Amino acid sequence: MKKRNFLPLFVTQLLNAFNDNLYKNAMVLFVVYQVYSSAEAEAQFSAIASGLFILPFFILSALAGQLADMRDKAKIIRWVKGAEIVIMACGATGLYLAWRATMIESVAIPLMLVALFAMGIHSTFFGPIKYAILPQHLERDEVLAGTGLVEAGTYIAILAGTILAGWIPIEVAGVVVVVMAVVGFITSQQVPPAPPTEQGQKIDYHVFRSSIALIRNTMKDREVFYAIMAISFFWTIGAVLFIQFPPLAKNVLMASKEVASLFLVTFSIGVAIGSISINALLKGRVSARYGPISVIAMGVFVVMFYFVCKLWAQHVPTELMDVPEFIIQPLAPLVLGTLLLIAISGGMFVVPLYAFLTTKVDAGQAARTVAANNIVNSGAMVVGSLLAAGLSAAGIPLLEQLLLSGAMCLISAWLGAVLYKAEKEAALAAES
User: With DSSP H G I counted as helix, E B as strand and the rest as coil, what are the percentages for the chain, rounded to 5?
Assistant: First the structure.
């Protein structure tokens, strides 16, 4: 944390995650709690917002990965952080119009969604660098710890952004996101140079052709292939859960937007704890050893959360509860506790898989490997968003949708087990 080859990057990505989540959650919570009045419309808007943010990852990740491997990563960071100032100014205008109740559905919401889509593009180009720069700036035995810190820092930033989104007025959120974009641009100036390790490579600007080629080339490595598949399925589950949280809080638990924010905060704390814990368990070694058991535990905790919510629904109040009212409810510790355990086990599952992507390939291919992962991840998350929207449109209760997320954890566990088997086989082959 004291090293210049890590600290500026860490702070820059921290501010990036903070701003993403402050803006996205302020927008979603405002629309869910102030604009719409039906669970179906709220869940569908939440799914649309998530899908718009994820879509650029699917389309542009191949180009982002090529740029990150073939150009100076530090320069790209500065470019995208400069663009963030303009994007957040656009989003802040939408938030301001929403606050003034001016042309909410005709101008404010479209403007906010455009800014959200642009932030998805911004994150598409920043994402591969965040992980791929670590093997270039850190020693090999520091990469897992560095990845864990980045992941934990990301979720702490998500925590801070989510808290503010639930508690500060929407007009204040508009000012804060612009200020944080400016601060992030300033810190990005301190990231040390990270020039390409291979010179003279050409960039393919045909996004679909380059995406197919990138995935095909990346998937040749069995360990990388299974790691990407396991991460992608994990984030399909994550997309469904995150889409469900705000409308679930409002319509099932009768909780205010501050309590919905508390749920997301609890989830973020849990992932941060899981990220650090798995590094301690593995003692710095990149391995999927604890992957299957971690995600099975996650599925069990999702089912527990379902039953706790079922019990809660039997004694639901008629008015939305604020945080003090929610906390004193007899089942509140179980609701928050199961959410925390879901997130801890999820963090323990996914963090080593990201370390796989940057340590199992040559340094010159690291960003493109992360980009290939982002393409497959984003496709899976778009499917998760469409699935959540479809289930809501079909009239399936939000609470029952939780059971689907729990069942999907079994497939993630199988993928984790297959990855660990491939890891052991590769280790034996290397020894012989």
Answer: 85, 0, 15
CATH topology of domain 7-192+205-431: Growth Hormone; Chain: A; (1.20.1250)
* Long-range contact pairs involving 139-142 (C-beta distance under 8 Å, separation at least 24): 140/359, 141/284
Calculate the CA 205 to chain-centre distance.
26
Cα-based angle 417, 423, 428 (whole degrees, multiple of 5) = 130
Residues in contact with 326: Cβ distance below 8 Å, sequence separation at least 6, in sequence order:
253, 255, 256, 259, 262, 332
Could you read off the pLDDT of 47-106 as tens digits, one per residue? 788 778 888 887 888 788 787 777 778 788 888 899 999 999 998 998 888 888 777 777
Assign 321 to helix, strand or coil: strand
pLDDT band at 3 (very low <50, low <70, confident <90, very high): low
Inter-CA distances, 174 with 18, 25, 95, 270, 388, Å: 13, 12, 6, 28, 28
- pLDDT value of residue 139: 63
Q: How far apart are CA 351 and CA 258, in angstroms?
A: 29
Long-range contacts of 325-329 (CB under 8 A, 24+ apart): 326/253, 326/255, 326/256, 326/259, 326/262
Which residue ranges make up each domain of the chain? 7-192+205-431
Measured at the CA of 160, the angle between CA 134 and CA 42, to 5 degrees, comes to: 110
Cα–Cα–Cα angle for 200, 202, 203, nearest 5°? Answer: 140
Task: Give pTM, 2 decimals.
Answer: 0.69
Per the CB < 8 A criterion, the answer to whether 391 and 168 are in contact is: no
What is the rounded distance in angstroms from the CA atom of residue 102 to the CA atom of residue 105? 9
Two tokens at 392?
Answer: 């809501």
**pLDDT tens column, 411-424:** 888 988 988 888 88
Q: Which residue has the higher pLDDT, 260 or 185?
A: 185
The percent of residues in the chain predicted with pLDDT above 70, rounded, is 91
